[in-house]
Amino acid sequence: MSTPKLNDTSAAADSPVDPDAANVVPASHRSQFTQFLKTLTSFTGDLSQLTCPAFLLSGVSLLEYSAHWADHPDLFYAIAAHTDPVDRMVAVARWFISTLYGSFHSRCKTGTEKKPFNPVLGEQFYCWWPADDKEGVPETRMVCEQVSHHPPVGAFAIENDKKNIFLNGHCGQKTKFKTTYIKVEQTGRAVVTVFPPDGSVDEYFVTLPEMALRGLLSGQLFVELLGKSSITSASGYQTVFEYVPKGWFTGEYHSIKGTISKLDLPGGPLLAEAAATLIGTDASGEDAGGSPTSTTSASSASSTTSSKKASKKARKMAEATMQSAISEGEVLFEVSGKWTTTCVATRLEDGAEEILFDADEHEMQVPQVKPLEHQTDLESRKLWHKVATALNAQDYQQATAIKTTIEDEQRALRKARVERGESWAPKNFVFVSDGASAASKSSETGGGSDAGSMHSLASSKMDLAGPGLQARAALRGLSVIAVGGSGGTEALVDEGLWTFVPERPASSMS
């Protein structure tokens, strides 16, 4: 049976919906909405800590939004079919643009963007896109977990082991009010690891755009992307996207332009080393030095501080090298269009055009999720089920009461951990610092493993309900990052990658 599809992914209505066409803010809540806007304008700090009125909630956990990385699983696993690195980079660019549509436009195309639930620490979301043997469609699987609460950071991993492609990533948000809109800085990154048919290995380091949540004054909220994002491959290619904001009187929403280039720098190994530093391994794919360490002692804290300084210095040098390579490199394609509808790549060599992504022609695929009765209490849909049910019934008072109970329980758990001096660690992920792959030999556990770039997933299928991370990490020679009792990992957001640790194959666990 083929994977079910969303009922409506048409991109015909690209611009925000007319606020007068829908009752965005219920009449009974307009005074509350006005008060909320006043609170926004006077609030200082990260808006993720601000309580949002229930009628503005989406009824879905932010952690579940990670599934948009595989909205089009066929575009994801198609990347691995290409042996030519140019064709493969074009395929990566095509897949990435497809993730933007679901992540930032699909919910507000015919309505209004609403605020998702803030995931609780340790919250998990598991899903998959089923195989279809008749159509030759292989299964794609995903694991997500909230690895930090303050600041909010969600980690995610995707695999299609039949096609030999794997993804690790994490994303956090820093939100601030800016006069007439909310600015969201997305922290984090994603790394795609590919094993093409020719036996080679390639990795792609993906950065994230910034967002502006507009339409506050009318209550008709929608997302506009800002700034730039990039995809850099270890094989020496880079895609850069620039998100062009609409002007006051001219232009259109959601315009995008970009380039796909072959990086060029005298001394190829230097470029390879720079790309590998950004991804988190050395140029040969071996340990680049350092190790993910626990933060439970003074000596380890000092070592961690020193490692961070070295990591920052290495990254600055790598970024300078990559920038030089970009300025001296060769632009192969120019990208233009709108990330909400259609994007086109033009090959500069001969002017040939090809469609990178067409939202009308390529419908989003809905992932499968276990029934609620088979989910644990920390899985997103079961955790928030009663709140979402109340929201759907427009019983906002009941939704607020249940949501408050969940949040109070989490505060009590955090307080208890602090009082007992306990640390918390994720079930499915370890943190791999920049300049160190998860293959790093840990001084605490000894031994090593190649889990950092998800190479190990080629021989170890992702277990959507496997044993605890501590046991798996010990088997793989990894140190588990111990998060403080309050669940904060501020220093860990931009200096490494939260990396999925798969269950070791049974034959090697004896």
UniProtKB/TrEMBL annotation:
Biased composition (Low complexity): 10-21, 293-308
Pfam families: Oxysterol_BP
Domain of life: Eukaryota
Any Gene Ontology CC annotation: cytosol
InterPro entries: OSBP_sf, Oxysterol-bd
GO MF, any single term: oxysterol binding
UniProt cross-references to PANTHER family, sorted A to Z: OXYSTEROL-BINDING PROTEIN HOMOLOG 4-RELATED, OXYSTEROL-BINDING PROTEIN-RELATED
Record protein name field: Oxysterol-binding protein
Record organism: Catenaria anguillulae PL171
